[in-house]
Task: inverse folding
DNA sequence: AAGGATACTTACTTAGTAGTAAGTAAGCAA
DNA sequence: TTGCTTACTTACTACTAAGTAAGTATCCTT
């Protein structure tokens, strides 16, 4: 919490967080260890403990950063100024990127399966993350239906929950059955949400 | 492999498998151990090894049994004789049961997150399981659209993949956000698949 | 030059993991 | 009753996990 942390400290801290996030999304919270991170980083496991004393704090830091990123991204002018279909497409791109970039699932998909074994702090933060994402998408969907650029039945919140659930699941499917299956599911989602003219 | 295995042996074997499956669906493959099973069963961990020498064999046995159950259920007269919407409803009931019965996810949802850390045998068996289930549902959807009892856009196989992905994800959502969210998603699914008259 | 903070390493503890080897009690079959 | 099989227990190996305490090299500040 010093006014300006030394560059090396910051670098290692960030690199730990990056690697931990990568391992978390690839293997799940219970299947990655300080040893994995240390080996990849070329340091000793105790060095990780120096930056993140416990795995709980490390895991919480991953979720917190994703939440910060979500808020920042969501509020970016180049995102807020898009039309609802474009905002939806921007969201889909995030998942497309994960599907293409090794078999990574999304944060929710990675943590939900292990949810009951997670520290309470992480459980709560994941709820917040998922809740805010759903809330944002519900707003996008509602606006899109109002201006006729998106179509769907039911409440925007229910539809947002369904779409995000499908997206989370689709990355798990990509891992098991390959990327092709993932794109089938995404095409299906787009077909249904976009009116005949745009689809 | 004797003609008639002693009753006690069979019982313990089955009880191990039942408990292991329960633990797997609740905590994931990497977060349950022979100790958990042994403790719940009132025996020593080595007794589990006697029946299932390795965790890989135990895990494979769980997937194999689910696959046997799926095939048996799918071919049951009381299932094959249902109309497509009734068959869909029967499928949804399986997920509703899991959602209500503690926070259990489905087999796919439990294993997909840990997929990269699973023994190759289990990976292959999960692919078979998921593939057969998708194939079955695609048939149901195709029949339903033909006779007008179900509605959806796109190929039946893509739609089946999407629906099953949503269902797998919805159980993970139930675990994180509670059962209510799960029912929102299911209602959304039903609304979209059933024509206005039946919905 | 001295002191202190930073960013580690070395060496350790504790606990949990899968898995194994040897022993044993109970039942059954010849 | 002898001997084999089943279904375990006891006691262990080997390994990995998270976490800690103490020591150290490097840098920055004064």
Result:
């Amino acid at each position: 919490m010093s006014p300006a942390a030394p560059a090396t400290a910051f670098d290692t801290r960030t690199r730990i967080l990056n690697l931990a996030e990568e391992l978390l999304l690839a293997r799940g919270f219970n299947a990655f260890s300080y040893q994995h991170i240390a080996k990849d980083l070329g340091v000793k496991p105790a060095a990780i403990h120096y930056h993140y004393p416990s795995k709980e704090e490390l895991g919480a830091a991953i979720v917190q950063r994703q939440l910060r990123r979500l808020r920042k991204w969501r509020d970016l002018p180049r995102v807020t100024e898009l039309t609802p279909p474009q905002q939806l497409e921007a969201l889909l791109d995030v998942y497309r990127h994960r599907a293409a970039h090794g078999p990574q699932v999304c944060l929710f998909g990675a943590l939900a399966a292990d949810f009951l074994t997670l520290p309470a702090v992480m459980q709560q933060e994941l709820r917040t993350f998922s809740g805010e994402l759903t809330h944002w998408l519900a707003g996008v969907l509602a606006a899109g239906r109002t201006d006729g650029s998106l179509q769907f039945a039911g409440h925007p919140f229910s539809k947002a929950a369904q779409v995000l659930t499908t997206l989370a699941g689709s990355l798990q499917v990509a891992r098991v059955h390959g990327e092709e299956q993932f794109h089938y599911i995404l095409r299906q989602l787009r077909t249904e949400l976009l009116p005949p003219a745009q689809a």
Observations:
- Chain B touches chain A through 47 residues (CB under 8 Å).
